[in-house]
Amino acid sequence: MEEKGKQAFDSVSAYLHTQLTATRSEYELLEKLNTAAEHEVNTMKTAMESTNNSMQDINKQQEELRPLLDKVDVLSSAVTEMMASAQALDEYSRALESRFKAMTRR
């Protein structure tokens, strides 16, 4: 009976040892996963901070360029109006030239 008790104790001891070893392995795996996740989060944080800084720089540059872009829009409108006026003047000169030629032929 003493031998059976020792075998039972050894079996329980082996079972508990296996369970504790598995739990320890799971804990070590979780620790490695947490470390990897922390590294990824830090990498993403750095990338987001960089992106945020870039966006702030772009917004600042856009605000600095806004007055110039507004001037470009005004100049573009003026050029369009001038081209329309030049075209109208060209058409008027052609009509005048046609009249002049018609008058000189008579």
TrEMBL record:
InterPro entries: BLOC1_su2
Origin superkingdom: Eukaryota
Molecular functions per Gene Ontology: gamma-tubulin binding
One Gene Ontology biological process: endosomal transport
Name of one Pfam family that matches: BLOC1_2
Gene Ontology CC terms: BLOC-1 complex; BORC complex; gamma-tubulin complex
Similarity annotation: Belongs to the BLOC1S2 family.
Protein name per the record: Biogenesis of lysosome-related organelles complex 1 subunit 2
Organism: Salpingoeca rosetta (strain ATCC 50818 / BSB-021)
